Amino acid sequence: MKVLSSNTIVRIISLCPIVILNPVAYAELATNGEYKIDPTHTTIQFSTTHLGISELTGRFNKFSGNLSLNRSGNSSITVDIVTASIDTNNAARDKHLRSPDFFNVKQYPTMKFVSNKISFNNKGEPNKINGILSLHGKKRSIEWTITKIGAGKDPWGGYRAGYNANTTIKRSDFGMKFMPGGVGDKINLKLNIELLKK
Amino acid sequence: MPILIVTQSLLLPLVFSAIILYFSSSKRRTQAFLVLFSWASIYFWTKGALNLIPGEALDWIWVLIAVNAIFILSAPQQLLPLLCSLLFGVFLFIFSWPILSYQNELTVWFELVFFETVVAIVFYKIKSKPYGLPAIHFATSALALAIVSILSGSLLIGQLALSLVALTGIFSFYEIIQTPTKHSLYKSTQLMLLSLYFSLVIIGRLYVEIPMGSTVLLVLAPLSSLLSNINKNYLIQIAFSSLAILWALL
């Protein structure tokens, strides 16, 4: 039996990404249909100021969501986030954020966004999403700015679309007013979403 | 930021403590009203929100002591321990309802029954003791609760517990310098302050997951003081409070 040389193995390995990524057509318009969030390729991040002198970033590790994309009719998206999954890379701080001082995760285990309007640009890409964010027992209207990243078939026969979404909320609007000097009131939310067509 | 915490949790309650002592040395109802006013002021300033319509368990505490104050102002004194125990039982259910609504487990109910039983015994013992619970004993338990809460993850409950220490601070000092010891907190005010203390312990247990061992020790600390020998009860009180902190540290 012929043994492959190390140079051949290196060449095969270096070609793998091309073979895997080749089927995806990044620039195409995401097709209409029903999508669900792929949690392994999605991040939900937030950032705020600490003592007004630096910016701190965190994320939520557990979430789910669905997108119904229909350019000629009603499009909608819902995202459910498990508040206890907050992660700022510091266990003591995460415990504090889960307590009644901030998220009060025992009383409010989830936060939810439900869209009521998705706007499209002239290319047919979603560029704004308006809807209601339910957090900490309060419901407030928010608007996301959307940037399309790509869409197309994946190497496993599925169809995927990816977007980034950004918005800024005030935690005080949601009744989280503790430690006003220590933790910034403005919270930047950033969703890097990958959606898998059902 | 640290200045704000010290002002909210220590300076303001100490000032209130002095005002309460000065204006209510012989007026039971005035003392109850002043404690209610002081607590509401401290609570709203610390929380940073004027939630007159309660949304969270912590918001319900000021309603609890407002009803407590109404009882003190209007009900016969001998009925107060019973009324306060029943009232606390109702609020125990209100505090825990958001959790019970999705986590209706037997262990939670067992804890609630245990809390209510101990609270009822403490309130009954307050009535039967000549001066009830000394302010210094109450302050020691509240200080332990503050430390345990902060260790468990809630600075807010820690600050509120610390404000209870300061709110009884002048009374504790007054007790220490008096010979023989004279208690200046009326039993009715003690019932109000203990309702506040037990509420914070239970909310800490339910919402911050204060360790069960620490919770039991914090709940039993005032009872240990009321049940034990009069000469040694402060040592037992300190032992319970210290163990509660140690448990939270482990």
Secondary structural class of chain A: mainly beta
Task: Estimate the helix proportion of chain B, in percent.
Answer: over 70%
Biggest sheet descriptor of chain B: none
Tell me, rounded to a whole number, the average pLDDT of chain A. Answer: 87
* Biggest sheet record of chain A: 8 strands, antiparallel, barrel
Head-to-tail CA distance between termini of chain A? 45 Å
Question: Given the structure, what is the number of helices of chain B?
Answer: 11
Ranges of chain B where pLDDT stays below 50 over 5 or more residues in a row are none
- What kind of assembly state do the chains in view correspond to? heterodimer
Proportion of strand residues of chain A: over 45%
- What's the total number of strands of chain B? 0
Please tell me about this protein's structure.
The complex is a heterodimer of chains A (198) and B (250). Chain A has 198 residues and is mainly β. Chain A is globular, with a radius of gyration of 20 Å. Chain A contains 2 helices and 11 strands. Chain B is mainly α and 250 residues long. Chain B has one domain (2-249). Chain B is 80% helix and 0% strand. Chain B has helices at 2-23, 28-47, 57-74, 80-100, 106-128, 135-152, 155-167, 169-177, 187-208, 212-227, 233-249. In chain B, helix 3 runs antiparallel to helix 4 and helix 6 packs parallel to helix 11.
